[in-house]
Amino acid sequence: MREDFAEILRLVRPAARVLDVGCEDGELLELLTREKRVDGQGLEISPAGVSACLARGLAVVQGDGDRDLDHFPTKAFDYAILSKTLQQMREPKHVLSELLRIADQAIVSVPNFGHWRMRVSLMARGRMPETRALPDPWYETLNIHLCTLRDFTDLCRELDLRVDACVALSGGKPARPMRPDGLLENWRSETALFLLSRRSEAAAEAPPRDLFGAVPLEAPAPAKRARRAKPRR
């Protein structure tokens, strides 16, 4: 089982309504259906992937996550899952926003281009890195919008998203709870998995559910107001 699949399985509650965007051959969706009895649906652009899902007996539609998420009703799902796929989207900001329109929560995993192996490879070899998280050469990869952990958390802030839980995944080791905006995590985390939700007036200040022992992103510090100079007499 893929390491991020195991963590997604832990996150999803039984009998939930789930949309798996970019579900490929349906491995994750089948796992969730079998282990958590979810009411699952897949969205996959590849005809081969759609055929594989249908062969597993899964509900799947062929479509493009960049365009076709707009056609899903608001709050139609409990979870929308995007597993190591956001970096392949033409409009990742729009896709992330749509995930949290059509679902109460989004589960998103992203490879971290700021991981130390990436940095060392670029400095030492001067070439696009090939690692466990990003194994394909630059001329064959489907990735078009690679980002660092800091880039992703900045986007979450821009969209006013709440990080309910976050773990780091590296080299097949057990998932490690982390603070996603920590400076060292941008070096240490090979892949990051996020549970996201929209902020609301009622929930914005509430502590996150401690699913992984993670902590929320800190809001940017408000700008200090300049003190007015006292008029001279």
Describe the model.
The chain is built from eight helices and eight strands; from the N terminus they run H-E-H-E-H-E-H-E-H-E-H-H-E-E-H-E. It is an alpha/beta fold and 233 residues long. The N and C termini lie far apart (76 Å). It is globular, with a radius of gyration of 19 Å. It has helices spanning 3-11, 27-36, 47-55, 65-68, 92-102, 116-125, 149-158, 185-188, and strands at residues 17-21, 39-44, 60-62, 77-83, 103-111, 161-169, 176-177, 191-198. It has an eight-stranded mixed sheet, with helices on both faces. 29% of the residues lie in helices and 21% in strands.
Topology:
Blueprint: H1 3-11, E1 17-21, H2 27-36, E2 39-44, H3 47-55, E3 60-62, H4 65-68, E4 77-83, H5 92-102, E5 103-111, H6 116-125, H7 149-158, E6 161-169, E7 176-177, H8 185-188, E8 191-198
Parallel strand pairs: 1-2, 1-4, 2-3, 4-5
Antiparallel strand pairs: 5-8, 6-7, 6-8
| Number of DSSP E strands | 8
Could you spell the SSE succession in H and E letters?
Answer: HEHEHEHEHEHHEEHE
Query: Stretches where pLDDT falls below 50 for ≥5 residues?
Result: 201-216, 223-229
Structural class designation:
alpha/beta
Average pLDDT figure: 80
Q: Mind summarizing the main beta sheet?
A: 8 strands, mixed
Strand content: 15-25%
Number of helices: 8
For the largest sheet, list the strands in their spatial order.
3-2-1-4-5-8-6-7
Inertia-based shape: globular
Radius of gyration, in Å, reads 19 Å
